[in-house]
Specification:
Blueprint (H helix, E strand, L loop, with lengths): L1 H6 L3 H35 L13 E3 L6 E3 L5 E4 L11 E3 L6 E8 L1 H4 L9 H12 L4 E8 L5 H11 L6 E5 L12 H4 L3 H11 L2 H9 L15 E3 L20 H25 L3 E5 L20 H16 L5 H14 L4 H13 L3 H14 L8 H13 L4 E3 H7 L19 H17 L9 H15 L2 H18 L14 E2 L1
Protein name: GDSL-like Lipase/Acylhydrolase
Organism: Gimesia panareensis
GO molecular function, one term: phosphatidylcholine lysophospholipase activity
Length: about 500
């Protein structure tokens, strides 16, 4: 018994020895993390800010081309004639006046005012609002809305506009990210956890200090040192050409990569503006949910032919029900969605039936599901809205929620044809609402002081603006709207040539 008890304590010193290296390593890691945390906290207190990267690691352009050029006299900047297919003419003085407040608004065709033009875009209504509030100042609201322009095409424009003495940037972007053919080999198969980790690392002030010490040519994101896509100076949207709609297919990994690139670009614009000390406002875009049939739908590829046949039979039964039989119609829809809950048109049909039954909350949910399942995403995806709000909060950037604004002004709370003329473009009244919301945000930020009687002057200026537009302006808008609706449904007849191809690495 004594021998056994004497021999049992022998391994204890050895066990302690084995634990010491593990404990030391753990303490070393914790100490290192604590030092990094202290350094990071010190840099934040010191006012060090995250830095933008010098170039886009995913996209580059075959030619460098500025949006604005000087006139012959050298006194004004004008929209370059080379960009006239995508931008409306704008101009502003080379020498900015002492009483001038200069705003650059960046985005796609919504910013431009499509299907009409700049004259009834929210940029022009904003300028009239500012003029009504403070006639002693000159307000230059420069419309940089490019047809089909995605966020990665806006970053170079913002970089250029920094040379033109801006007082404010406004960014309304999100609907055009899926228009051009691009590859994202370095992003597609990257786990979501890794993307989130990289997103956090990009915001570290310590990373900014290291980045500032690197040579410019090494100042790229960790994702890639070279652009994966070389694009033409202006947009070559897939839908601009024959059979463009056929090129869209269900590809969740590719879509996720596109959305990650969108977040990168919005972050770039925020940091570029912050670095230059120029305020920037974000606008959360709005989409037509209830009056826009999805552009392309596909069944879940895992379905059998028997399951697809069953869905089609249920679909036919639902279509054959009159609206007086809406409950029965809904039963068929639900049976079909139990088999496939990813077919966009099927989900939209459920939403329309809920809308008829005045189940508006459910209808909105189904319409959003239909938008998200649309194989041809011409309306901003929900994760992109989330990115916009996350970045606004992270970098303390003011955000105007145009989607919520339109929802609040729509009786059933579902954005539709009341204030939108197609899948994404607001009506003239919708543009005025957005302009008012931006103006109010500028007042909240004390960028301008709003006098109590400004609305009467604003209304008068609006009437004069609308009366100055000839009937031809509205007729052109209606014609352009019909073309736009055909384009979105893949009805283009143009044939692409060698010069319109995207070059991917």
């Amino acid at each position: 018994m004594n021998q056994t008890s004497d021999s049992q304590p022998e391994p204890q010193p050895q066990q302690r020895k084995q634990r010491h290296p593990v404990l030391f390593r753990l303490l070393a890691v914790l100490l290192g993390l604590a030092l990094v945390g202290l350094l990071e906290g010190g840099l934040r207190l010191w006012g060090v800010q995250p830095l933008p990267y010098s170039r886009d690691p995913f996209v580059s352009f075959s030619e460098d081309s500025t949006l604005f050029v000087k006139n012959e006299a050298g006194t004004e900047y004008l929209t370059s004639a080379d960009r006239s297919d995508f931008f409306r003419p704008q101009h502003f003085p080379v020498q900015k006046g002492t009483n001038t407040y200069r705003v650059f608004v960046l985005g796609g065709s919504t910013v431009q005012g499509r299907p009409y033009a700049v004259e009834t875009s929210f940029t022009n209504w904003l300028q009239l609002n500012l003029q009504a509030a403070d006639p002693a100042h000159k307000f230059e609201v420069v419309n940089c809305g490019g047809v089909s322009y995605a966020s990665y095409r806006l970053v170079p424009i913002l970089r250029e506009a920094l040379h033109y003495e801006p007082d404010l940037f406004i960014v309304y972007s999100g609907h055009n990210e899926f228009l051009e053919d691009r590859s994202y080999a370095s992003l597609k198969h990257r786990p979501e956890l890794l993307l989130q980790t990289q997103r956090s690392l990009l915001n570290l002030r310590l990373a900014s200090v290291i980045q500032s010490l690197l040579p410019t040519e090494q100042n790229t994101t960790p994702a890639s040192s070279e652009s994966e896509n070389v694009l033409a100076t202006d947009v070559n949207a897939l839908l601009d050409f024959q059979k463009g709609l056929e090129k869209y297919h269900r590809d969740p990994e590719h879509h996720r990569a596109i959305m990650a690139h969108y977040e990168f670009n919005i972050r770039q614009m925020i940091l570029l503006a912050h670095q230059a000390g120029v305020p920037l406002l974000l606008v959360n875009p709005v989409s037509n949910l209830k009056n826009c049939i999805p552009f392309k739908s596909e069944f879940d590829p895992r379905l059998t032919q028997e399951e697809i046949a069953r869905i089609n039979a249920l679909w036919k039964s639902a279509d054959e029900c009159s609206w007086d039989q809406a409950e029965r119609k809904m039963d068929f829809w639900r049976q079909a969605t139990d088999i496939d809950d990813s077919h966009a048109s099927l989900l939209y049909g459920v939403g329309k039936t809920c809308e008829y039954l005045k189940q508006f909350s459910a209808a909105k949910s189904w319409f959003i599901k239909a938008k998200e399942a649309d194989v041809c995403p011409l309306r901003m995806r929900e994760p992109m809205h989330d990115s916009l709000f996350r970045l606004a909060k992270q970098y303390d950037v003011p955000l105007i929620d145009a989607r919520q604004l339109i929802e609040q002004k729509t009786p059933d709370g579902i954005p539709g044809s009341e204030l939108l003329v197609d899948h994404v473009h607001p009506s003239i009244e919708g543009h005025q609402l957005i302009a008012d919301a931006i103006y109010e945000k500028m007042c909240d930020l004390q960028l301008i002081v709003s006098p109590p009687d400004w609305k009467a002057t604003r209304d008068q200026l609006r009437r004069e603006q609308l009366e100055s537009l000839e009937q031809e302006y509205f007729l052109r808008g209606a014609k352009r709207l019909r073309r736009l609706q055909g384009w979105a449904r893949g009805r283009s007849t143009l044939v692409p040539d060698a010069t319109t191809q995207t070059h991917t690495k």
